[in-house]
Design brief:
Blueprint: H1 2-12, H2 18-33, H3 39-55, H4 61-69, H5 74-86, H6 93-105, H7 109-118, H8 124-136, H9 140-153, H10 161-172, H11 175-187, H12 194-206, H13 210-219, H14 225-237, H15 241-253, H16 260-273, H17 276-289, H18 295-307, H19 311-320, H20 326-338, H21 342-354, H22 361-374, H23 377-389, H24 397-409, H25 413-422, H26 429-441, H27 445-458, H28 463-475, H29 479-491, E1 500-505, E2 508-513, H30 522-538, H31 554-562, H32 565-576, E3 583-587, H33 593-606, E4 610-613, E5 618-622, E6 625-626
Parallel strand pairs: 3-4
Antiparallel strand pairs: 1-2, 1-3, 4-5, 5-6
Helix pairs in contact: 2-3, 2-4, 4-6, 6-7, 6-8, 7-8, 8-9, 8-10, 9-10, 10-11, 10-12, 11-12, 12-13, 12-14, 13-14, 14-15, 14-16, 15-16, 16-17, 16-18, 18-19, 18-20, 19-20, 20-21, 20-22, 21-22, 22-23, 22-24, 23-24, 24-25, 24-26, 25-26, 26-27, 26-28, 27-28, 28-29, 30-32, 30-33, 32-33
The chain binds one DNA strand of 10 nucleotides through α6, α8, α10, α12 and α14.
DNA sequence: GTAGGGTTAG
């Protein structure tokens, strides 16, 4: 139909060629795309179009502008470019800028630059399009270089260029350049522009300078939805998701209504925090505003509920979503993984394949992770082969790490080591750490030493490697070696990250550190804990001092264990969370083995469900049994 | 011609 119409038009107007032809063709295509079926309207529009072309002089640059805008292929742009050359129109700045813009839009930066380079004169738009093009393409060197030329050229700097350049600084985490651009913005009086400020806030935040980001945010003359959203996301990214929630409320109080993007940002903050009470409130808010979430928002909500400990709510959101993509499915598979439901992850993968959703690298990573955390060694090995043989996805170091973890947890240390030796991709810290952790569980001191040496070679400054090796020596009672590492660590000024646990009660979080006495009900908490441990011992709980990692006497070891942050948090949870409700606990590190046993016995003796989110996964503990199957 | 969104090993 479309072809026919074009042919007819061409017969009526044989003079139509090049850009005019493109323009007419695109317009007709547009009419077709609009589902316009009325034949008469078609005829009418077609005739208006041809009359216009006949009446307008062919040298009018406006024609070429509209023809350019209608281009659908790079080849069309090039053909118009050639026509402009022939007609001597390459001195029209507006037209060249449009051409430049189209080259950038169709990712042909070489064409764009060769045009830009030859331009006899340029205006700020020319610079901005070229620099923005380099920025979007991730061509940092050319972006900065062209920006430098722009500044040097003495041409007026308008507001459009800066955000692109700042975004590049953000992506490269180039704080030095970022500060320089900030300085330039001041110099040209553009530092109060909202677009510039938002880009700067985002840049500082992503470079880890959250204080500078916040200062800038606080003094901004006007804050729109995007500004707030950037700041809310920045807080969550810098580890202060609680502040994100505070800002979100302030934003709403200021009269702004969150859109989908800001909802996604706050949903993420909630996921980071693991705050179930907030998750429900935000879900309600989303439901009042939208009939159903879009793919991105829905996916974020699945992740939020999963990370807040409710795999059932996550699945419900998943089931109710009108549209899902590979990321949605992968998110749900990951969720089953860190909730220790490997079998469900595998089942979901089968359904996903039946639905003809093509899995990607991350889907497989989530599957392998799920297998490793549920002890499904055979399935994991099979998935690993399937990924390569059926889907032709090459494993990267993360997939190998999962495999090493899978084999290592199952005690198949030699197989894991063979895999590491034979793999063709570069080995990193994570890979060796996974292997080292397995060596530690199975007391393979010599293998552990190999791993630790590789680790310290890759990164001599990472304290956790030193701590891990010291833990292995401690477990093997090699106290001399422990002492040596401790001395090394002191010399390097490396310290162990302190363990912290939060418990959710009275719609808020209470934080505990090891041996904490800062809570106002501290005395009662210790009393509760003491009574609890007495009760537990009667039920067969024996403190496991293997997990105390200093060379101290048994008595002192017991004392340290006794006041671990998770024990204090759970004691307080028992006091303050109403009976019948689960106790929700979040720990910044992984739960130690003794605390894990403690939690299981508490769940049995007190008849309480305890949901623990540690640095890597969830433990659902009920009636003395943990969902991780003691396998974490 | 300029700013903000989802999954991922240890």
């Amino acid at each position: 139909m479309f072809k026919l119409k074009l042919q007819r038009l061409f017969t009526v107007n044989p003079s139509i060629e090049g850009p005019k032809f493109c323009s007419v063709a695109s317009s007709l295509q547009f009419l077709d795309d609009g589902g316009q079926t009325n034949h008469q309207i078609h005829e009418h529009n077609t005739s208006i179009l041809s009359t216009q072309i006949q009446q307008t002089p062919s040298m009018d640059p406006r024609f070429y502008v509209s023809a350019l805008m209608n281009c659908k292929h790079l080849q069309q742009i090039k053909s118009i470019h050639a026509q402009l050359s022939v007609n001597g129109l390459l001195s029209d700045l507006l037209l060249i800028n449009k051409l430049l813009y189209m080259y950038v839009r169709y990712n042909s930066l070489d064409d764009a630059y060769s045009l830009f380079d030859k331009m006899p004169e340029r205006n700020p738009a020319s610079w901005s399009v070229m620099i923005g093009g380099f920025a979007k393409a991730g061509n940092y060197t050319n972006c900065f270089e062209t920006f430098r030329e722009y500044i040097k050229s003495g041409e007026h700097l308008d507001v459009y260029t800066l955000p692109s350049v700042i975004r590049v600084c953000r992506d490269r985490k180039d704080l030095k350049m970022g500060r320089l651009v900030h300085h330039i913005a001041h110099k040209f009086g553009l530092h109060k522009n909202t677009f510039v400020c938002v880009a700067l806030v985002d840049m500082y935040a992503k470079c880890g300078i959250i204080d500078d980001a916040r200062k800038l945010f606080d003094i901004m003359p006007e804050r729109d939805l995007t500004t707030w959203t950037v700041m809310i996301g920045a807080c969550a990214a810098s580890g202060n998701a609680n502040e994100s929630l505070v800002l979100f409320d302030q934003m709403r109080e200021s009269g702004l209504v969150p859109d989908k993007v800001s909802m996604v940002t706050i949903v993420n903050a909630c996921a980071k925090l693991g705050a179930m009470h907030k998750a429900k409130l935000i879900h309600d808010l989303i439901q009042t505003q939208y009939r159903s979430p879009d793919v991105i928002l829905g996916t974020a909500m699945i992740d939020m509920y999963a990370k807040c400990g409710s795999i059932d709510s996550a699945r419900q959101v998943f089931d109710e979503m009108p549209q899902r993509n590979v990321i949605t499915w992968s998110t749900m598979i990951s969720a089953y993984g860190y909730h220790g439901q490997g079998q469900k992850a595998l089942e979901l993968f089968l359904i996903m394949c039946k639905n003809r959703i093509a899995p990607n690298k991350i889907t497989f990573l989530s599957l392998l992770y799920a297998c490793s955390h549920s002890g499904l060694v055979k399935d994991g090995l099979q998935i690993f082969s399937q990924m390569q043989d059926e889907y032709f996805i090459k494993p990267d170091v993360k997939h190998y790490t999962c495999m090493v973890d899978l084999l290592g947890r199952a005690g198949r240390i030699n197989e894991a080591f063979t895999m590491i030796k034979n793999m063709k991709v570069e080995k990193d810290e994570g890979l060796w750490s996974a292997f080292l952790a397995a060596c530690r569980v199975y007391n393979q001191v010599e293998m552990a030493q190999k791993a630790a040496e590789s680790l310290l070679e890759i990164n001599p400054h990472n304290p956790s490697h030193c701590i891990m090796l010291s833990n292995i020596y401690a477990k093997a009672a090699k106290w001399d070696d422990v002492a040596k590492i401790r001395v090394q660590m002191n010399g390097k000024n490396v310290k162990k990250t302190p363990g912290l646990t939060w418990v959710e009660a009275h719609n808020t979080f209470y934080k505990f550190s090891s041996g904490d006495r800062t809570h106002c009900e501290s005395n009662a908490i210790y009393e509760k804990l003491e009574g609890l441990i007495g009760k537990l011992k009667v039920n067969g709980y024996v403190p496991d001092t293997d997990f105390v990692l200093h060379d101290v006497s048994e008595e002192v070891k017991l004392g340290n264990l006794y006041a671990h942050s998770e024990k204090l948090a759970i004691a307080y949870g028992l006091m303050s969370v109403p009976e019948g409700n689960p106790i929700r606990v979040t720990k910044n590190l992984r739960v130690c083995g003794d605390c894990h046993t403690f939690i299981k016995v508490v769940s049995l003796v007190e008849g309480r469900e305890i949901i623990v989110r540690d640095a890597k996964r969830f433990h659902h503990v009920r009636e003395g049994v943990c969902s991780c199957g003691d396998y974490w």
